[in-house]
TrEMBL record:
Keywords linked to the UniProt accession: Cell cycle, Cell division
A Pfam family of this chain: CDC14
Top-level taxon: Eukaryota
UniProt cross-references to PANTHER family, sorted A to Z: CELL DIVISION CONTROL PROTEIN 14
InterPro entries: ARM-type_fold, Cell_div_Cdc14
Name assigned to this protein: Cell division control protein 14
Any one GO biological process: cell division
Nucleus listed as a keyword: no
Taxonomic source organism: Zopfia rhizophila CBS 207.26
């Protein structure tokens, strides 16, 4: 896995768009192998048989997503998670650096496709390795996401960026404070109110505002045991282990989210009301319909 990551890192660090594309596909392929289970093979259609050497004698594999419990017991995922704990092999940091370089390159359709691919990979990484979300506690990285929401970017990039932004804030209140401190609310609401913003992006912006207004997770009542990796615990406790590891990375000694990082729903409502009218209606709708269930952000 180290060899594959090293090769992918070299490619996405290049200024050659062909190499960047290759590196992003290598990362995507690695994530697919980790997350998908191969099923029974089935004969390919006649039109595919000319590629038999690439699909093992004319047979194609069907794939299905692995369940969370199965993922926790998967040796490849365990190795991937272990590697992400160190700076040298952390994929999220390399993808963020790649996005910064792409933003500095000439804007065109080909470059936009590379940005979309990098964002898609980054979203997957932040879901697979929640501790990597802590990099967005730094203003330089949060500002990069907000730059991707600028009106000059295409709607597809804006929509994908919003998905990454939600993932970066999920169960990480300290990142939400960074988002607020870097004028994230002003950026999001300005884009929402702009007449030039597409309807699809406005819908995703509205979903983001609902997410932002959700109650934030309170600190756990009990301290978590100190472990090098949350994956040493049982699969049923995998999600909790992620959150505890995330807290450890962010420097909270109590094993939970620091109280000083948490804002109440009323506080966030008041902050959002500085830039947007009728925030009370959003909160009321959120309480009545619970669009995200009972999950705290």
């Amino acid at each position: 896995m180290e060899a594959l990551l090293s090769l992918a890192f070299d490619n996405i660090a290049s200024k050659d768009t062909a190499k960047i594309r290759k590196g992003l596909r290598q990362i995507e392929g690695m994530l697919a192998q980790i997350c998908l289970s191969s099923g029974k093979s089935k004969p390919s259609t006649p039109s595919h048989r000319r590629n038999a050497s690439a699909i093992n004698l004319g047979e194609q594999q069907t794939y299905s997503p692995k369940k969370l419990g199965a993922l926790a017991e998967d040796p490849a995922f365990r190795e991937f998670f272990r590697l992400q704990e160190g700076f040298e092999w952390n994929v999220a940091i390399r993808l963020v650096d790649c996005l910064e370089r792409l933003l500095g390159m000439q804007s065109n359709g080909q470059n936009d496709l590379l940005i979309l691919s990098a964002l898609s990979n980054l979203q997957g990484l932040l879901l697979l390795h929640p501790p990597s979300r802590t990099i967005f506690g730094r203003e330089i990285y949060m500002n990069m996401l907000l730059d991707l929401l600028d009106p000059y970017n295409c709607p597809a990039i804006q929509s994908s960026t919003l998905l990454v932004l939600v993932t970066s804030l999920l169960a990480t209140p300290q990142n939400t404070r960074t988002f607020e401190n870097t004028d994230g609310l002003l950026t999001v609401t300005s884009l929402f109110k702009s007449e030039e913003t597409s309807q699809n992006v406005k819908l995703k912006l509205l979903e983001f505002l609902y997410f932002y207004l959700m109650p934030e997770a309170p600190p756990p009542t009990a301290s978590a045991p100190s472990t090098a990796m949350g994956l040493q615990r049982s699969p049923t406790k995998l999600t909790g282990a992620f959150e505890r590891r995330n807290s450890t990375v962010s420097g909270d000694e109590g094993g939970g989210v620091s109280k000083k990082n948490i804002r109440s729903q009323e506080e966030k409502q008041h902050m959002l009301a500085r830039y947007l009218n009728n925030v009370e209606d959003l909160v009321q709708d959120l309480r009545e319909n619970t669009p995200f269930g009972a999950v705290a952000c």
